Amino acid sequence: MPSIPLQRTLAISSLVYAASLWGLVWYPYRLLSEAGVGGIASSLFTYATPLLLIGWLHGRVLREARGRWLWLAAIGMTAGWTNLAYVLAVLEGEVVRVLLLFYLSPLWTVLFARFLLHEKLNRAGWAVMALAAGGALVMLWQPGEWPLPANRAEWLGLSAGVMFAASNVISRHLEGVAEGAKAVSVWAGVAVLTTIGLAFRPAELGFMADAAPTTWLLLLGVGIAIGSMTYAVQYGLARVPANQAIVIFLFELVVAAVAAYFLSDERMGVQEWVGAIMIVTASLFSGHMENDQSKEKSHV
Q: Taking the model in full, what pTM does it have?
């Protein structure tokens, strides 16, 4: 068994890994869209891939968690909407702006964690949260305008952030439930929501008739990446307080901004870089967010 400090390092590293991949995964989804695969269809195939390939390996832990299936279903629905809305948003909107709205989620996490997990922030914690949220607002702010969603993609990004915060807090609430059971719930949640979506937009499945082998390989590759990210997120959330985890996840915003600059010609100005620096700084100090009592409770 790894020591407590090593477990914490591994948990934080797994969250950074997941955030980094999430900051990049929008690009292959855009490539799939250019190949004729709509956002709902690509989400179905990429989340069904880990569900079908390795979901069956977690049958035992799912049976052991049957007394908490309602909470697992809640993870499935909240995480399902998070992932589907995220994909649709980055396909339709500007990546950085969508993610800025997505990463107002620390504000929602504070509320959810306070009522469900009874996690309390100390003064340093509130300062870290203010710095992180302030960084996002700095990157989003336009003179004379409120930093509010301006189109469907941005509303999807905002709603995905709310559900992201909820799913993370629920996952943290389910201490003692194996990460595999939570991962299967996430994949199944996306599969259910996308199946419902395709019932209203069946034309998105039309690509299957003449899809190139490279399209199928890309779907498979993204699906495998999604599977690894889901495991990483659930491993980290089981060992890192929700309020700290959400700040670590903000690193995705920086990765996405840099990737958007090189891959889609979305340019970051001085304002965006200042916000990014604030977010990274907040992430570095996120380990001081909770008071001692909350930390003791989180290790029980």
A: 0.81
